[in-house]
Amino acid sequence: MRYSGLKILTEGLFGNRGWKPVWREPDPKAEYDVVIIGGGGHGLSTAYYLAKNHGITNVAVLEKGYLGGGNVGRNTTIVRANYFLPGNQEFYSHSLKLWEKLEGELNYNVMHSQRGLINLFHSDGQRDAFARRGNAMINQGDDAILLDREGVRRLLPYLDFDQTRFPIYGGLHHPRGGSARHDAVAWGYARGADQRGIDLIQNCEVTGIDIENGKVRGVRTTRGAIRAKKVAIVVAGRSSQVAAMAGMRLPIESHVLQAFVTEGLKPVIDHVISFGMGHFYISQSDKGGLVFGGDLDFYASYAARGNLPMVEHVMEAGMTLMPMIGKAKVLRSWGGIMDMSPDGSPIIDRTPTEGLYLNCGWNYGGFKAVPASGWCLAHLIATGESHEVARRFRLNRFATGHLLDEEGTGSQHNLH
């Protein structure tokens, strides 16, 4: 079934009785060429691009819960390509290009809105740093505009420009940045993968990884053993736990990152805004809710829920930046389990076990990476070689010291 405005109108007139299930509910087969552990955005996009780009369709995506129930449905939906370091730059630039064509390719409305992202700066030093970053973005082929204080005021007149602690000096405007609907991205990739013959198996928890003579042979699950020539671990904050089934210890810490949404309000915020000094970011959804978040909880945890001290911290930052939101009622909050790497950059690589692949370490930035992550992991699985835009995301950089320290905060997980 293809979606269109005419199809929606027709179904509305005839009681919406013609819609079909978006994907199948198959039972797992005894053996696959590739098994992907994790039915989130990264796992589903990997399956989709294995089929589309490489013609590999004997693939199963195993999800212990329901598709899109993890971090891809627990984030603040920001899409951007404003990275500074070679290695990260070309990867996220590639991802943004894929985002811009995604709805047409998938025939699915992921609500990708290039409303523009503005990162505020609050000192002369930050201005210099953002000027360097903007020039690097332009040299990469992306877009960046350095705004002074009045330039920001013209676009964001509702901010508190007179605050004394963190005065707004200006901002770096990334016009092609924006947001998308998080769960729609998962559903779109799931539908596309299913249409190409991929088996999407929900309520199927992996309980073990079978390895023989240094080579992966398959996985054990709550729905029986499944043999596989290749296995990919794509489970975000659970990466360390699943990798331990294969005898691996990863350089990953898992932390909770909270997000919030308010009641629906009249349109007021046209952009995505990032308040660096408060580590606060906010946008407004199509339904009118203000979607915002801040720092992660600064202790390791696998609890996908929030806590009151961090709620207070995020609300304080929001009120400092824009006191006008103080009377808005917060409807709900949620927590995603972040897989934090020591240098704040991801890992897309094979492991020492033949046929076992790893995709993790996305920190705060996993959502915007969904298209390119799947594209590059599928390329690695299919060809055995890292894609050119992901060649620096190797696991061995933590042994050699060739880190991608984008924020310049060193090798401490919780600082990224």
Model description:
This protein has 416 residues and is α/β, with parallel strands linked by helices. Helices cover 28% and strands 26% of the residues. The protein contains 10 helices and 18 strands. Strands 1, 2, 8, 9, 10, 11, 17 and 18 form an 8-stranded mixed beta sheet that branches. Strands 5-6-4-13-14-15-12-16 form an 8-stranded mixed beta sheet. It is globular and about 65 Å long. It starts with a helix and ends in a 16-residue tail after the last helix. The relative contact order is 0.18.
Helix content: 25-40%
Radius of gyration from the alpha-carbon trace, in angstroms: 21 Å
Total number of β-strand segments? 18
- Major sheet: 8 strands, mixed
* Helical stretch tally: 10
* Mean pLDDT reading: 94
Strand content: 25-35%
Detail the poorly predicted runs.
Answer: none
Shape: globular
